[in-house]
From TrEMBL:
InterPro entries: DTW (IPR005636), tRNA_Mod/Golgi_Maint (IPR051521). It comes from the Eukaryota. One of its GO terms (molecular function) is tRNA-uridine aminocarboxypropyltransferase activity. Keywords: S-adenosyl-L-methionine, Transferase, tRNA processing. SMART domains: DTW. GO terms for cellular component: nucleus. Its EC number is 2.5.1.25. Residues 166-182 have a biased composition (Basic and acidic residues). Residues 163-182 are annotated as: Disordered. This is tRNA-uridine aminocarboxypropyltransferase.
Length: 240
């Protein structure tokens, strides 16, 4: 068969068309999964000026620091606080920091500086009580039982219904068959019907991978729904 035959040219055009569609689909998929595609960076001029002048004094404790005080969670004297952007988060964040984690290297401080009204940092074993608000809290941590972020609303609604059912159900009465599937029973958190029970708080563990087990297995964090996320560093294979 000649390479210039109509049949060969038609197949070639079809293959090229499929290749272009596949590449476009892959590009769209990558763009939709990119969590930083809408990230906007503020000017770094204030930090560049502070770096030129060197370490400065913390206005609270008097310690000598660069850029910010990692003890008081505030910018130092030569970094005007009004020039530091403030971030308004859609929910509260609790960070549980391992006591052996070096304060000066902890990136949890950055979150506290940029969103002071939404972020709280606790040093283990100091952990708040979450039991009464269990359906509003999730722990960001990898593991076999972790769920994806897009599925968290479904699991929170499921937990709420199970709790209500456990309190109200009469064990002597037979349960009625449900006509709808679980996916139909629970709505998305963005749905106006579910506005009364949204996810309100996320818990992060700030430590090395080798130190996480002590915090992760604490009874006060057990039962929290675990969420998967994108990691800067991959956990070791023998962590679980």
């Amino acid at each position: 068969m000649s390479l210039n035959s109509p049949i060969f040219l038609k197949r070639s055009e079809e293959n090229n068309s499929k290749f272009v569609e596949t590449k476009q689909s892959q590009t769209t998929s990558i763009a939709s999964e990119d969590p930083l595609q809408n990230l906007c960076l503020a000017s770094q001029e204030v930090l560049q000026k502070a770096q030129q002048s060197g370490r400065s004094k913390c206005l609270k404790c008097g310690g000598s620091r660069m850029f910010y005080c990692y003890t008081c969670y505030v910018p130092v004297e030569n970094v005007p606080i009004e020039q530091i952007p403030l971030v308004k988060l859609p929910l509260k964040i609790d960070i549980i920091k391992h006591p052996n984690e070096t304060d000066g290297k902890s990136t949890a401080i950055h979150a506290k500086l940029l969103a002071p009204e939404f972020v709280d940092i606790y040093t283990y074993p100091c952990i708040p009580e979450y039991e009464e608000k269990d359906h509003e809290v999730a722990l960001v941590f990898p593991g076999p039982q972790s769920i994806s972020i897009k599925d968290i609303s479904f699991h929170l609604q499921k937990r709420i219904q199970n709790n209500v059912r456990g309190k109200n159900d009469d064990p002597d009465k037979p349960s009625f068959k449900r006509k709808r599937t679980e996916e139909q029973q629970f709505c998305d958190l963005n749905d106006s019907k579910c506005k009364g029970t949204p996810l309100k708080k996320i818990i992060f563990i700030d430590s090395t991978w080798n130190q996480t087990n002590k915090i992760f297995t604490d009874e006060r964090l057990q039962g929290k729904k675990k969420k998967k996320m994108f990691f800067w560093t991959v956990p070791p294979s023998d962590l679980f």
